[in-house]
Specification:
Layout (H helix, E strand, L loop, with lengths): L1 E6 L4 H14 L3 E4 L9 H10 L5 E8 L5 H14 L4 E6 L3 H4 L11 H12 L4 E3 L2 E3 L10 E5 L2 H10 L2 E4 L5 H17 L8 E10 L3 H20 L14 H10 L6 H9 L3 H8 E4 L1 H13 L4 E5 L6 H11 L6
Parallel strand pairs: 1-2, 1-11, 2-3, 3-4, 4-7, 7-8, 8-9, 9-10, 9-11
Antiparallel strand pairs: 5-6
């Protein structure tokens, strides 16, 4: 398996330590989240990561088309490529905490393919237009790949149609993996692309602790953030949620926070959602438990996985423990 992790860049020292861990333990990719109000600027963090590493791939995972003009993001990722040549990629999404915490609307999923096409033109050194304005980046040396973060059907379709890769946030159960990856590949084939050219990474939360109870208490906050914020929106049946859980998930969507904390974790338990959401969206607990859960994900068809460690009890400790005691078994 290919294994990476993403994080909220809370401080420069955290960025450097996690990057060094990725290099030492052989993770394939690290991702920097764009989440103003929760963490520091992602492009500053990405530069720190680039300077602290030599091998690991670095992803903007992810920014959006609303809080940052896509020409600005194109220039930023091309600039980062000058620091870490050939190791960077730009991840785009509709926007969640990155827009909601600023009080602005995110992009519609239908806009994402157009954003990818626009940025691709700029990264190729050609002029391109966006909302009436024209830009050009003649200094770009090479076009970094562009990925889309996708959970809903429109975003999955856009990823297949236009992107170089997809960060799929839909779940690790076999039916989730099959449904989401089939959607991306079908969309690619429909526009004459080779479906295998779209690099697919499944996403999940990770919290690896020697004390499994510590991990369990903490993982609920990110589960609430992921599930209620952007994965299980709209028609819950269409998103693969069992009917008996619909009422609890509607209540979770009403009460969760885009600045998650202990209250969200307690809410997951109070609503009786922990078991289902953790099976679908997380790998957590002791190294042995994490090993078993990741093996189940591999058996379900996951070939590449990107873990969020943003809200782990100890992000650096999680990356180190998982890298030392779990990761070698999947190489």
């Amino acid at each position: 398996m290919h294994v990476g992790f993403l994080f909220w860049p809370f401080a420069p020292d955290l960025v450097r330590r996690l990057t060094k861990c990725a290099e030492h333990f052989g993770y394939d990719m690290i991702g920097i989240a764009d989440t103003p109000g929760n963490a520091m600027d992602p492009w500053v963090a990405g530069t720190l990561a680039a300077e602290a590493s030599e091998v690991v791939r670095i992803a903007m995972c992810v920014t959006n088309l609303a809080s940052r003009h896509p020409a600005v993001s194109a220039a930023a990722i091309a600039s980062l490529d000058l620091v870490a040549p050939g190791r960077v990629l730009l991840g785009l999404g509709a926007g969640h905490s990155g827009t909601r915490n600023l009080g602005i609307a995110g992009s519609h999923a239908s806009e994402l393919a157009g954003g990818v096409d626009y940025i691709r033109e700029l990264l190729a050194g050609r002029s391109a237009q966006w909302h009436g304005g024209e830009a050009r980046l003649p200094w770009v040396r090479r076009p970094p790949p562009i990925f889309l973060a996708a959970s809903g059907p429109k975003a999955l379709m856009s990823a297949g149609q236009s992107a170089d890769g997809a960060f799929i946030n839909y779940g690790l159960l076999r039916e989730n993996v099959t449904q989401s990856e089939t959607a991306v590949r079908a969309a690619a084939s429909a526009v004459g692309r080779d479906a295998d050219d779209v690099e697919i990474w499944q996403m999940a939360a990770l919290d690896c602790e020697c004390d499994g109870l510590v991990s369990r208490r903490k993982i609920g906050a990110i589960l609430a953030f992921m599930a209620a914020g952007y994965i299980l929106r709209g028609n819950l049946a269409a998103r693969g949620v069992p009917e008996p859980l619909h009422g609890a998930l509607v209540e979770l969507r009403r009460r969760y926070s885009t600045r998650p904390g202990e209250a969200d974790s307690a809410l997951i338990d109070a609503l009786g959602l922990f078991d289902y959401l953790s099976r679908r969206f997380a790998v957590y607990g002791t190294p042995a438990a994490c090993r078993n859960q990741l093996a189940a994900a591999r058996e379900a068809g996951v070939e590449r996985i990107m873990f969020s460690v943003s809200l782990a009890a100890d992000p650096v400790g999680t990356v180190e423990l998982f890298g030392r005691e779990v990761l070698p078994d999947f190489r």
